[in-house]
Amino acid sequence: MICEKCGVEVTLTKVRRERMGHIELASPVAHIWFLKS
Q1: Which of 14, 19, 24, 36 is 20 to 30 A from 1 via CA?
Q2: What is the pTM of this model?
């Protein structure tokens, strides 16, 4: 099921927790997870 207001898939918390997202930024930025390894 997809939310009509924001377009996000309505699903279980467990499923959402395991998925990674992607957003467009004005300049490249390294995520903190990649800096710690």
Answers
A1: 24
A2: 0.31
Structure tokens that stand for 35 in this block: 């800096």
- Each residue's pLDDT expressed in tens, for the chain with a length of 37 residues: 888 888 878 888 777 677 777 788 899 888 777 776 5
* Dist CA 30 CA 36 (whole Å): 11
| CA–CA distance, 35 with 1 (Å, rounded to integer) | 36
- The residue ranges of every structural domain in the chain are 1-36
